[in-house]
Amino acid sequence: MNSFSSLAQSFALAKGSSHIRGHVEDVDPLDVERAVKVLEGLEGVSEPTNSDLIEGCWQLMFTTRPGTASPIQRTFVGVDFFSVFQDVYLRTNDPRVSNIVRFSDAIGELKVEAAAAIENGKRIIFQFDRAAFSFNFLPFKVPYPVPFRILGDEAKGWLDTTYLSPSGNLRISRGNKGTTFVLQKKTEPRQRLLAAISTGTQVRETIDEFISLNKNIAKDEIELLEGEWQMIWSSQTETDSWLENAANGLMGKQIVKKNGQLKFVVDILLGLRFSMTGTYEKSGTNKYDVIMDDAAIIAGPYGYPLEMETKINLELLYGDEKVRISKGYNNYVFVHVRTDGTKQK
Fold first, then answer.
1. How far is CA 261 from CA 78, 227, 316, in A?
2. Which residues are CB-contacts of 210 (< 8 A; sequence separation ≥ 6)?
3. Containing H/E element for 215?
4. How far apart are CA 316 and CA 284, in angstroms?
5. Do 146 and 86 share a structural domain?
6. How many CA atoms lie within 13 A of 191 on its CB side?
7. 214 falls within a domain
8. Which SS3 state, helix, strand or coil, does residue 253 take?
9. Within-domain flag for 154
10. What angle do CA 12, 22, 3 make, to 5 degrees?
11. What subcellular compartments does it reside in (predicted)?
12. Which of 16, 102, 181, 272 is the most exposed place for a label (fewest CB within 10 A)?
């Protein structure tokens, strides 16, 4: 093991699952500690607590459980059958570190919160001060019966981050009670989608997963939202001429207007750009008929008209105010991101 990716993968393989969570009792503790030490020796983020990458929701992958752990720590590192998370938010008016045991989507969770502060580039100091159960079948929270004020120093502690990956996805931290935590950042489906496109890794599989997840929660029909939309990925494998690609919406930017007007814009070079306008009309559930018939090469105030017409059956597979996934010309799948910052009214 001599790279971040192979070490991170070794944690997953140790559990035989992509969910990569467990305790050292499940594997050889020496193997876990050896992997941790190698990661700590790699060049990660130099001052983790001063980096925005440390912020977010982290899922516990592995932890040690020394007998010296405090009662509060044992509440979390002693849980084998539920998902355990740690929220880290240090750049707010109320900086906090929160430990969360999530029982299930149907039941709810226990959240224990601590007021936090940055001591140096690696250390966070904290003091637990409140906790509650949030049960999904109750309209109120149930206080967790821990007398934090009476606990005194038992409610205080520190957490050293000894490794934070440059990507911000993996973190190793060691606590004041000698516990070692290996955590993986919990990413939202949209973040996983954009990361897959950025790295070119399993893009189509990630898109299919993203669409499937959102089909389960989507209630309303998908609308073609106005704004400027930049294409960041398409499933096109055979490349036509750039002019045909531009006319078929296979590159560049789409500008959608409320009045049924649509424009394709592609920057060429040296101030030249391709522009093509047309119309869109709703033809069914999540479907639109698009006719593009006014094309030109634009150079400053001048335009050279082109005799072109394109008809596209556009189907929206997913859409929100930031990301759009659609199927269009030749049944290619497209991913667009909004670049103008406007919001649906």
1. 59, 11, 17
2. 189, 190, 192, 193, 318, 325
3. helix 203-215
4. 11
5. yes
6. 8
7. no
8. strand
9. yes
10. 35
11. Plastid
12. 16
CA 5, CA 8: separation in Å to the nearest integer?
5
- Report how far residue 118's alpha carbon sits from residue 52's, in angstroms, rounded to the nearest whole number: 13
Same domain for 268 and 153: no
- CA separation for the pair 340, 266 (Å, rounded): 16
CA–CA distance, 84 with 156 (Å, rounded to integer): 20
Residue 124 sits in a domain whose CATH number is: 2.40.128
What residues pair up with 299 in beta bridges, in sequence order?
Answer: 272, 302
Q: Which two tokens stand for residue 27?
A: 């594997």
92 contacts 128 by C-beta, under 8 angstroms: no
Q: Is residue 265 part of a domain?
A: yes
Domain range enclosing 275: 220-338
Q: Is the pTM of this model over 0.85?
A: no
317, 309 contact by CB (below 8 A)? no
Q: CA-CA distance, 121 to 270, in Å (whole number)?
A: 46
Task: For residue 143, list its beta bridge partners.
Answer: 132
Rounded CA separation 180/66 (Å): 9
pLDDT tens-place values along the chain, 345 residues long? 344 444 445 444 333 333 344 444 455 667 778 888 888 888 889 999 999 889 889 998 888 765 445 545 555 555 556 788 999 999 888 999 999 998 887 899 999 999 999 999 999 999 999 999 999 989 999 998 888 888 888 889 999 999 998 888 899 999 998 888 999 988 778 878 887 888 788 899 999 989 988 876 656 788 899 999 999 999 987 766 788 888 888 888 999 998 899 999 999 888 899 999 999 999 999 999 999 999 999 998 889 999 999 999 999 999 988 899 999 988 999 999 998 755 433
**196, burial (CB in 10 Å: exposed 0-12, middle 13-18, buried 19+):** buried
